[in-house]
Amino acid sequence: MTALYKSYGFGTTSQAWKPSSWKASRDISQHRGIHLEMSDLHKSFAKSKLAKFPPEAPMPESMSYSDDAWENGSSNSSVSSTGTMVPSPTRQLFARTGRRQSSQTSLLWTDFFDQELFLPEEVNNLHIVHHAYLTPPTESGPLFVMHHGAGSSGLSFATCAEEIRKILPKAGILSLDARSHGRTVMTTLDSKTDDEAPSTAVAAESESSGEIELDLSLETLSRDLVHVIYQTQTRMSWEKLPDIILVGHSLGGAVITDVAKKGELGPKLLAYAVLDVVEGSAMDALQSMEKYLSTRPTRFPSLLSGIEWHTRSRTIRNTTSARASVPSLLYEESEPSDPSRPWVWRTSLSATKPFWENWFVGLSRKFLDARGGKLLLLAGTDRLDKELMIGQMQGKYQLQVFPEAGHFVHEDQPAKTAQILADFYRRNDRSALVLPPKVADMQASAAMKKGTGAPGGPTGHLK
Questions:
Q1: SS3 call for 231
Q2: Is the pLDDT of residue 453 over 70?
Q3: Are strands 85-86 and 95-96 parallel, antiparallel or unpaired?
Q4: How many CA atoms lie within 13 A of 423 on its CB side?
Q5: Which of 127, 130, 148, 407 is flagged as catalytic?
Q6: From 162's CA, which of 20, 240, 245, 461 has a CA 20 to 30 Å away?
Q7: Comparing C-alpha atoms, which of 349, 381, 354, 394 is closest to residue 280?
Q8: Is 177 designated active site?
Q9: Residue 20 designated active-site
Q10: Which pLDDT tens digit goes with each residue over 70-82?
Q11: Is 21 in the active site?
């Protein structure tokens, strides 16, 4: 438009202008009419494209913070300026919310799953009560088995699980708490608890005595995952396992890849999806892991302040998911060393350091070699290492990138992640395969229609 104005001697668009002749005025009006028509076309095109994207949960809201609620490292984090404008419950964009609404309180697991399972086991002189969240599949629906990352819990997949069920109503979701995470409890055989539904605090404090040696090796976590799947089958009285799609985030991605490579689920494993972890970048990140852990708070004055820290630091960029998952990451000490900040982390990530390298060495090769459909969902293409780049060019797996998400892609973008996982399942669903008819069958059918019988057989007319 600027060039057009100048061609008629009107100067720039920011200036007031007057046509120098009737002809110029008419030409300008015609041009503006064309511009309006194109603008409407652009709008309709944009609306058709935007309609295809699933609605996303609101971003973190405007929150008030007090200095005494934070320890190290939180002051240098900031929330996007658009964080004060979030979709309302009716999906009206840019509806402003008030401060300190109920949306800042925690959400219950019952908002996302049908039931929780406590699966006891005695192994290596330990009494373990494995904990998992379950929404059973219906009819012949698949079972998505979720494994969280280090320091997280089964509720990390809560919002994503809800979105999967919206797209695939018959699908089931099984999301477990790994040992030393969430509400999975480990005690010695001599002091095993009779509590059938232990809290996160009970689970954490039962391991704090030092009598139990921490074992978070890849081999142990893989064994635990397979055990939970088969124990769930027994508890639910399933004749056979449903078709399974393994989904793992970060450390969980290494665990489900190891299970897929070992083939312990047999033909019931349709496919597996790894979320935001590859061997090369994971090994590089380990060098700075201790520095990162030293910058995050070790204690919180309340559960609410823990939720706020996760959204304020943009560790989790989705408020709804933070409200669902963060409560399982913290517990209130019964005798806190600092009464003003009694809430501490359920899992000590620094204590897991001896296992870091064991988790990720050889991950890329196992991911490419294991049988079944493969999906790698990343927050950035820079995370791809050489082996995976070659595998991608050879078409060995599906790659999806969510540049707008952080490390917790399934929490930051639950609806989009769910859509990708649902499409991934459909692409690998064997029951949906329709094989073409055999040539011999087609010839026989054609011959019967002509009344000549099968090829090579006796001829004659049908009576």
A1: helix
A2: no
A3: antiparallel
A4: 11
A5: 407
A6: 240
A7: 381
A8: no
A9: no
A10: 333 333 333 322 2
A11: no
